[in-house]
Amino acid sequence: MISHMSRCGKFITFEGLDGTGKSTQLGKLATALRAAGVKVVETREPGGTPTGEKIRRVLLDSSTDGLSPLTEMALMFASRAQHIAEVIQPALEQGSIVLCDRFTDSTEAYQGSGRRLGSESVLSLHRVLCGDLQPDLTILLDSDAASSLGRARRRNQRASRRRRGGHGDENRFEQETRTFFARVREGYLAIAAREPQRVVLVDASGTPSQTHSQIMQVVSRKLKLPARIS
Ligand code: TYD
Q1: How far is the CA of 101 from the centre of ligand 1 (A)?
Q2: How far is the CA of 15 from the centre of ligand 1 (A)?
Q3: Which domains, ranges and CATH numbers included, belong to the chain?
């Protein structure tokens, strides 16, 4: 078991379907916290370390053929274990606020529910490989699957066109079916219902600045940050 005893920082994760605006909102929160003098580390999964970014390429490139669901889950956790050891745990020990774009809830929603591997296998691996590290707060951005996926697809197509041949893309998950993403969303909502203390559902269907103000309220309430931040 990894020890997570020494932890004076705060760990905040962002979750939601592809294209719900997680990265934009994470960046806005980071700017607001930094302006208030808080030390912030921004990171993402899969990825976040040099090894994790290599694993990310294997996982997200649409030219990766025939990856079994179990291998996919194992690679998500391989990236995560390295990320905790190299980035998250040291930053928490130094008292930073760590903002992470996706964490184990993504594996429970996408592999557990979307790929039907079940929550229990995800939670067991999380205990073994991640020392059961839990975020202090998880912001779950929710909007209907069709509009967020449309957004993600358009963004990834633009990014693919900008890349020169042979550099790969990040489209593998976006090629999944509507019913896959409906299961992923159900998976997320089940986690939110099970852990209401940790997971806060935020409506992501408004403008980015409307969503940002909801997030600021949640963060200052939950983390008891100084009033000047909100
Ligand atoms: P991300 O870069 O956050 O995509 P987006 O910005 O489109 O939301 O994540 C890449 C993909 O990886 C996304 O489709 C979800 C998937 N994923 C999993 O299936 N399981 C996981 O554990 C993680 C971290 C991501």
Answers
A1: 9
A2: 9
A3: 10-223 (3.40.50.300)
